[in-house]
Amino acid sequence: MRLGRRGGRQASVTAVHNPGARRQLEEALVRALIFPQPQNVQWLSEELVLAESGQALCRIVLAENAEPLERLAAAVVADAIAKLGEARPEMGTDAGGGVSIYVGGCARQREGAECALRDAGQHPEAYGLLAQGDSIALLGNTPAGTFYAAQTLRQMLYKEGDSVRVDGAVISDWPDFRYRGLYIESKWGPDLMSLQDWKDCIDYMAALKFNSLGIGVYACWCVQYEGKRTEFSMLPYPEHPELQTPKTIKYYSAKQQQWQSLTYLPRMFEEDFFGEVVAYAKSRNVIVRPQFNGPGHTTLIPHTHPEVAAKDEAGRPQVYGYCLSNPKTYELIFELWDSIIDRYLAPNGIDWFHMGLDEIYNITGADEENPERVVDPWCKCPACREKSRNELLQDYVIRATQHLVGKGINNITIWNDHLASVGMLTPEFVASLEQAGVRDKVVLQWWRYDEPALEIPQDLGLRAWTTPMPGYWFWLFYEDLTSNIYPHLALAHRAGAEGADAYATFDPAFDRNYYCLAEYSWNQATVEDIYEFKSKYARKLTGASGFEAVEAFEKFDQAYGSVPWVRGALDMLLFYWHSYSRARSQYPGNVVKSLLHDSMRLRNTYHGMRTHLSRASHFFEACRAKAPDPGLIDQYLWECERLVAVVDTYEAILAAIRKSQEALAAAEPEARAQGLRAAAQVVSEGLSRLDAMMARAEDVKKAYLLPQILRDLSRLRGFVTELAAAVHAAADSQAAVGRLEKLLADLS
Ligand SMILES: [Zn+2]
Question: What is the arithmetic mean of pLDDT over 62-67?
Answer without folding.
Answer: 96
